[in-house]
Amino acid sequence: MSNETATRRPVVRSGVASAVVPGLGQFLLGERYRGVGILLGFLVILATVIWYGKPLWYASPILIWLWNVWDAISLAGGRARSILLPLFFGLAAAYGIGWQVVEIDFSKANMDRALAILRPMTRPDFIQPRREVNQMWVPVQVPCSSQPPAARREDAGRVATVIPDCGGVGETLIVNVTGMWANAETSIFWQNPIGNPLMLGEGEISMLTLTTDESGSLTTTIRVPSTALVAAPDPTLPQFHRVYFEQYRPAGGYELSFIGGEVLKGALATISMALMATGLAMLFAVPLSFLAARNLMSGNPVTYAVYVIVRTLLNILRSIESLIIAIIFVVIVGLGPFAGMLALALHSVAALGKLYSEVIEGIDPGPIEAVRATGANWLQVVRYAVIPQIIPPFTAFTIYRWDINVRSATVIGLVGGGGIGYLLIELIRVNNMRGVSAVFIAIAFIVIVLDYVSAKLRERLV
Amino acid sequence: MLKIQNLSKTYPNGTQALKNVSFDVKDGEFLVVIGLSGSGKSTLLRCINRLIEPTEGKIFWDDVDITAAPPAELRRIRRKIGMVFQQFNLVKRSSVMTNVLSGRLGYVNPWTSLLGIWAQEDKQRALQALDRVGIADKAYSRADALSGGQQQRVGIARALMQDPKLILADEPVASLDPVLSHSILQYLEGLNKEGITVICSLHFLDLVHRYATRVVALKDGVKVFEGSAKEIDRAKFKEIYGEEAQEVRAASL
Ligand SMILES: Nc1ncnc2c1ncn2[C@@H]1O[C@H](COP(=O)(O)OP(=O)(O)OP(=O)(O)O)[C@@H](O)[C@H]1O
Ligand SMILES: [Mg+2]
After folding, report:
1. For chain B, does the N or the C end have fewer beta carbons within 10 angstroms?
2. Ligand 1 pocket residue status of B120, Cβ below 6 Å
3. What is the ipTM of this complex?
4. Are B66 and B86 contained in the same domain?
5. What is the pLDDT of residues A181-200, one digit of tens each?
């Protein structure tokens, strides 16, 4: 009987203790980690649901609290309860709140908008049919001087004239051109003295397009565009403007489009950026890695201090994303691949320094003691016992880093670091989805090819 | 004459690998060090050329105190002490030739050696050393392309390049089969006959009987025996190797 009360007392005491402070009962029973864990878990969940403020979720800490009392009582009887149950309650609350916090809402998906973007992306702007151009122009004086020269120009069998020879803004002119391609669509536009094209179609917002006759001639009337003199320093001063005639026809085959050319340039810039960055990083990382190798530096307190300092610096540097370093360099050296290159290089020094130093730490000490035993000095030991062991893995890691740097370089362009990423963000800004798609394809191509090449190269080194 | 006086080594982790060990090695001896694994044989050999710094005690070599030698002098002492290792300790990716040439590093101009430039004379010497151990044809193979026995011969050739007066061999045959063991030890014996002192640690007693002119036995870092191999009777054997020990012969493996 007395035996029973003896076991009863801790049961009640634990239950009450845990009811007042979750985990306290367990703690008092000697299960310290369990007690502290329960308290912390309970507090975190409680804080979360209070912060979120939706009554439904209060069920979670209450259930955990109930379980905790039950556990304390069972524990006093010598039997712990599975912690899976409170874990489940806690996770349910955390996950449920998380779902609402990230505003998951599938009804927001807009298929029309998605299609408007995706459709042009099926036709990447990389190449275009080749075409020939037949271009002709004639000068016109605006406004008229007292003695305007004839508005007539001959070139390669083509003749273009404007009647009268000059005009003011808004006046009507008759333009004529002969010797062009026959029966061909011809765009006619105005060009002001500083070279800006102005459209001559309806309301000056569309291109005036006509077709030549069988002999390759056409005649039409135009008005001197209302904006013809906008850029002129002195609107009363007569200046020569031009009327252009332009014809296109397919020349067979395909050529690189303008965007396609930009994509190629961007790709080249990206790869070179990564290459330069890796090379530069290697120059600094190699000496640093020796200073960051424990087995070489733990000999005496001075070198050990150097080791600790270098290691710490490399670790700090490595923890800063190259994207963030790039933002800083963009401020320092301006937009462009140079900033991106410097950022990649700085990050790579840290990354390569660590990889290299691990190679050095992992080398076989046997040859080192053998070479030391011959009476070689420190540099000779490094040259004959260390370097032959580390060159192949160093090379492999460098190639690997170059591979990573190319990927990073594409992203770094997004913050102004130049290369293909910069082109991408520009194209997105002007909503040129065909161009965007060309960039995507180029990036995928570069990454896949490089991945393969770097894997093959590294394979040969091990 | 090599004099080892009251040598002790305590590793930073507190392990006492050698305890007050003293003995002399006369020029021209083939001294074998025996003892159980962990008894301190490797530590002893490495203290002699200070690959490991002794904690206490002195080592005199022809009256020069090795333990007190400053770095430059230590390197001059080391170049006269060849060393052969159980694991051969070759640079695996380098050629046999480069491995052998590295034995000469203590003699040549440090700067040209850093550029990997070697005098014709040294290359000639390396080929002779390889020829001596019977693998001149392997000079330009990668070291890891050789068998264990061949690699150990490269190790001996490397030691020969030092023009050594003393050779330390730390279990030079423990990784080799019995036949190869004899062939390697015969090379060492040959060198010994030419006047090079040899200090060699060995595991198998039959090899000790066959090659040793004198034996030093270690047990837990303490010298427990010094004398000729013949003096190791059953009782001594049990003292060195423990009560349960059974003599194993290399040849019977
Ligand atoms: N670098 C080290 N740091 C700490 N303890 C060491 C170190 N090297 C050896 N020891 C210890 O010193 C003792 C002697 O080791 P040593 O290698 O000299 O023995 P050994 O007789 O050569 O053994 P084996 O036959 O296994 O080679 C052992 O207890 C070993 O664990
Ligand atoms: Mg040993």
Report:
1. C
2. no
3. 0.93
4. no
5. 999 999 999 999 888 889 99
In a domain, B189, yes or no: no
B40 interface with A at CB cutoff 8 Å: no
- The radius of gyration computed from the CA coordinates of chain B, to the nearest angstrom, equals 18
Which atom from ligand 1 is nearest to the alpha carbon of B46?
18
Any chain A CB within 8 A of the CB of B143?
no
B134 and B65 both lie in a single domain: no
- Mean predicted confidence (pLDDT) in B161-171: 96
What is the distance in angstroms between the Cα of A380 and the nearest Cα belonging to chain B?
A: 6
Q: Token match 């401020």: residue? A: A331
Per CB-CB distance under 8 Å, the chain B contacts of A392 are 93
Give chain A's domains with CATH numbers.
2-101 (no CATH), 128-255 (2.60.40), 258-461 (1.10.3720.10)
High-pLDDT (> 90) share of chain B, %: 83
pLDDT of residue A51: 85
pLDDT over 70 for what percent of chain B? 96
Q: How many angstroms separate the CA atoms of A413 and A419, rounded?
A: 6
- Is A380–B114 a contact, with Cβ atoms under 8 angstroms apart? yes
A388 vs B87, B91, B110: nearest CB? B91
B8 C-alpha to ligand 1 centroid (Å): 13
- Dihedral sign (CA B198, B204, B205, B207): negative
pLDDT band at A154 (very low <50, low <70, confident <90, very high): very high
Residues in chain B within 8 Å Cβ distance of A298 = none
Tell me, yes or no, whether B36 and B94 share the same domain: no
Token pair for B60: 């005199």
Residues B90 and B48 in one domain: no
pLDDT bracket for residue A116 (50, 70, 90): confident
pLDDT at residue B252 greater than cutoff 50: no
pLDDT over 90 at A30, yes or no: no
Domain that holds residue B227: 1-80+168-173+199-253
A367 touches chain B (CB under 8 A): yes
pLDDT tens figures, A412-431: 888 877 789 889 999 998 88
Q: How far apart are CA A453 and CA A457, in angstroms?
A: 6
Length of chain B, in residues: 253
**Burial class of residue B114, CB neighbours in 10 A (0-12, 13-18, 19+):** middle
Structure tokens, A377: 């000095």
| Residue B142, CA distances (Å) to B87, B98, B136, B146, B147 in order | 16, 9, 13, 7, 11
Q: Is the pLDDT of residue B60 over 90?
A: yes
Check whether residue B105 and residue B74 sit in a common domain: no
The encoded tokens of residue A86 equal 């409170």
B15 lines ligand 1 (CB under 6 A): yes
* pTM for this prediction: 0.65
Would you say residue B181 lies in a domain?
no
Residue B89 lies in a domain: yes
CATH of the domain at B95: 3.40.50.300
Kindly give the distance from the C-alpha atom of residue B36 to the centroid of ligand 1, in angstroms, as a whole number: 11
The residue-averaged pLDDT of A323-338 equals 87
Separation of A74 CA from ligand 2 center, angstroms?
Answer: 57
Alpha helices (H) in A292-336, listed in sequence order: 294-297, 301-319, 322-333
